[in-house]
Structures are given as C-alpha cells and as structure tokens.
From TrEMBL:
The lineage of its organism: Bacteria, Pseudomonadati, Pseudomonadota, Alphaproteobacteria, Rhodobacterales. S-adenosyl-L-methionine binds at residues 245, 269, 281. It comes from the Bacteria. CDD domains: AdoMet_MTases. This is RsmB/NOP family class I SAM-dependent RNA methyltransferase. It comes from Paracoccus fistulariae. One of its GO terms (biological process) is methylation. GO terms for molecular function: methyltransferase activity. Residues 131-380 form the SAM-dependent MTase RsmB/NOP-type domain. InterPro entries: MeTrfase_RsmB-F_NOP2_cat, MeTrfase_RsmB-F_NOP2_dom, RCMT, RsmB-like_ferredoxin, SAM-dependent_MTases_sf. The keyword Lipid biosynthesis does not apply. The active site is at 334 (nucleophile). Keywords: Methyltransferase, RNA-binding, S-adenosyl-L-methionine, Transferase.
Length: 380
C-alpha cells in the first residue's frame, strides 16, 4: 500500500472508532476486508490509528474536525507535512482537501491574503509585520493645496471657516492632513473652488520629486482620474500637461477637475512625438493602498499580480519611446511589492538607454500610502 492508501485506511478505522467501536475490533474488521494489505501495511495503519488516538484532541484542532480525516490532516500538519500532498484523490489516496479543511499559512494572523506573504516579506523584511498592522487601520485623509488657486495659508484658513481642521507636514508645504470633519470636505468652499484636491501624501511626495519647470512638455501616460496630471500642472506655471489613458473613459471627470483647479490639461488619445517628462502611474496590485480598499486586498490573487506585471512591463517600454533625448521618465506604482517596483525598473534599465536618477519608496511607516517612484533619464 502507498503511504496515502495507508492514511485512507486509518481514516476509515478512526471513523468507526469515533462512532463508538473499540479500536482493536475496528482494526480487525478493516484488515479482514483488506486482503491486499501485507503485515507491514497492517502494522503501519495500526500505528497511524493509535498515534492519532493518543493525541486525538490536539490533532483534531490542527485538522479542523474530530473525524478520521481531521485527525489524519492534523497528524500530517503536526509533523510539518503538507496534507494536500497526500490527500490527492489519486488511486487509493483520500479525497483532496476541501476549502474548509485548508488552514491559513499565516496570512490570517496579519490580515493579509496568504498568497501575498512571501512578496510582502521580501519587500518589507523587518518592517513586514508593522506595515501589515498599519494596513489594518483606517487611512488618514490628505489634501493637496493647489498652488494655481491658493497658498497653503489661504487654503488652511478657507478650510477652517468650514470647520475643517488640518495639520501641515514639514516635508511638503502643500500637503495637509485632515484632522476632523472629513465629511464636510465635499461641500466645503476650499474643495468646491479648487483650492485643495484629495491626494494622499505619498503620491504628493512622488510628484514633488519630479523635475517640473515652466514650459516643460509633460505626458501623463496612465492619467486615469488625473491626480498626477493635476499635481504636475500646479507645480510650475506654464508646464504643458497632456493626459492619456488606454481607457479614455477613466479620464471622463478630468476636464471638470482641471477647470475647477484652473489647470490647463490637454487630453490625447494617441500621443505622438516626444515629451520632456513622461509619467507612467501604472496599473498595479494596489497593495500600498489596501487600508483604503480592504475589499481589493481580499479579492487580490497571484494571477492578478502576474497580469499587472505584464502590463507594467509593456507600458514602461511603450511610454519610454515618447521620452525626448535627455528627457525624464517617471515610473510610479501604489504597490509595496518589489516585483512591481524595483524588479520592473531594473529589468527595463538592463536594456533601455535610460539612467536612473532617483528611487523612492514610501510606506505608512514613513509617509502615508505605500508608493514607489523611479525617476529615469533618457541618455542624450
Ligand atoms: C493607477 S491608475 C492611474 C491613476 C491616475 N494616474 C491618478 O493619479 O488618478 C492606472 C491607469 O492606467 C491605465 N492603463 C492601463 N493599461 C494602460 C496602457 N497600456 N496604456 C496606458 N494606460 C493604461 C488604466 O486605465 C488606469 O487608469
């Protein structure tokens, strides 16, 4: 008998014992009905059964049920073996594990999906647990003061008049953290008249790290709702900002947002020619923003990660063709995972005529959302 078949036999015997039959009688009944079992098999099944009975309750706890299957699943786990390798349903092996018989590989303890744990650990190392803990908390609301409409002092005063208290951040005068009355924001004068925009601190820090000067030709290649395009348009009067997205419907609100902000942004379906700065705020796992979108955290899968990795690679390659000689390419994600961040950039730089000027990573431990920026320059 194979090891799996012996375990299947032990399950059958244990189920009878749990139904009230004495152990010896139950083993005898099984061996009489199993003429194919040699003396070695009979001894092995007997050991499995008695070992399981000695540790019945702890194994049942590890196996998830006080049944023959539960005890054998628990026994394998107690030995540090993966029950799925034995419970295959092949030949005489027990039927494959049910979802209810699976246990978390550790993700439950930190409220992360199991699939992400190795990626999370690799990216964050000794900060892995602290960042996972941060992802269990409610995210703060950050505002970006729009310099085209107001100074930070004016924006703070306008917000205060509507009962919204904020605090400033030493790293960026235009970043304000809302301390209370967030629900009043949408109706506040400061928001309705474009003095402030909703934008997390980390992407604000990323945009502030971009080399934006008056007259610069900027392309936001993955513009979506336009958060980065609007931030850049506010950084230097006269920067010529063009917004593009593979799904133009995602930019539907951008003209109204730009109007409110007093920003000039050109929307373009097929960007051509070259730009001084191309921003690729690529689709990603969103793992850096999971405290804002906890539903996305639980929906995420390894397959989804594989899909976005492919998209990121092709976006980076295609967008880089639009960077002028000596111009800049900014690669951004709201992910914490190295596969989407450093690995993508390193793979790109291995072949492309670009040099990396700066690389930044932000997490809730040092800023707000998890965010990544690589700023590269096309070789002249
Ligand atoms: C992270 S979101 C951008 C968020 C946006 N920059 C903002 O600040 O609001 C990524 C965007 O990339 C777009 N996208 C996906 N594939 C693309 C591609 N191949 N080329 C250009 N944009 C793409 C998506 O439609 C999505 O709007």
């Amino acid at each position: 008998m194979t090891p799996s078949a012996r375990i299947a036999a032990a399950i059958e015997v244990l189920d009878r014992i749990l139904d009230g039959q004495p152990a010896e009688q139950s083993l005898l009944r099984w061996s009489r009905a199993s003429r194919f079992a040699g003396s070695g098999d009979r001894a092995a099944v007997r050991d499995l059964v008695f070992d399981a009975l000695r540790r019945r309750n702890s194994l049942a706890a590890q196996g998830g049920a006080l049944t023959g299957r539960g005890l054998m699943i628990g026994a394998l786990r107690a030995e540090g073996r993966d029950p799925a390798a034995i419970f295959t349903g092949q030949g005489y092996a027990p039927a494959p594990l049910l979802d209810s018989e699976m246990v978390s590989e550790g993700g439950d303890a930190v409220d992360l999906p199991d699939w992400v744990l190795p990626y999370w650990q690799r990216a964050l190392d000794e900060r892995a647990e602290a960042v996972a803990e941060a992802m269990r908390q409610r995210a703060p609301v950050w505002l970006r003061v729009n310099p085209l409409r107001a100074s930070p002092a004016d924006a703070i005063a306008a917000l205060a008049r509507d009962g919204i208290e904020v605090r400033t951040d030493t790293r960026l005068p235009t970043a304000l953290m809302v301390l209370g009355n967030e629900r009043k924001l949408a109706q506040s004068r400061a928001y309705r008249e474009g003095l402030v925009e909703l934008q997390d601190l980390s992407p604000q820090l990323a945009c502030a790290a971009l080399p934006v000067t008056p007259g610069l030709r900027v392309l936001d290649y993955c513009a979506g709702g336009g958060g980065k395009a609007l931030a850049v348009a506010g950084m230097a009067d006269g920067a010529e900002v063009t917004a593009h997205d593979a799904d133009p419907a995602r930019m539907a609100d951008l003209p109204a947002r730009a109007g409110r902000a007093g920003a000039r942004i050109t929307i373009c379906d097929t960007p051509a020619g070259t730009f001084d700065l191309v921003i690729t705020d690529v689709p990603c796992s969103g793992s850096g923003t999971w405290r804002r979108t906890p539903d996305a955290k639980w929906r995420s899968t390894r397959e989804m990660l594989e899909t976005v990795l492919k998209a990121q690679k092709s976006i980076l390659e295609n967008a880089s063709d639009l960077v002028a000689s000596g111009g800049s390419l900014a690669y951004m994600t709201c992910s914490l995972l190295e596969e989407e961040n450093a690995d993508q950039v390193d793979a790109f730089l291995a072949d492309a005529p670009f040099t990396e000027l700066a690389r930044h990573r932000w997490s809730p431990l040092d800023a707000s959302d998890g965010f990544f920026l690589s700023l590269m320059q096309r070789d002249a």
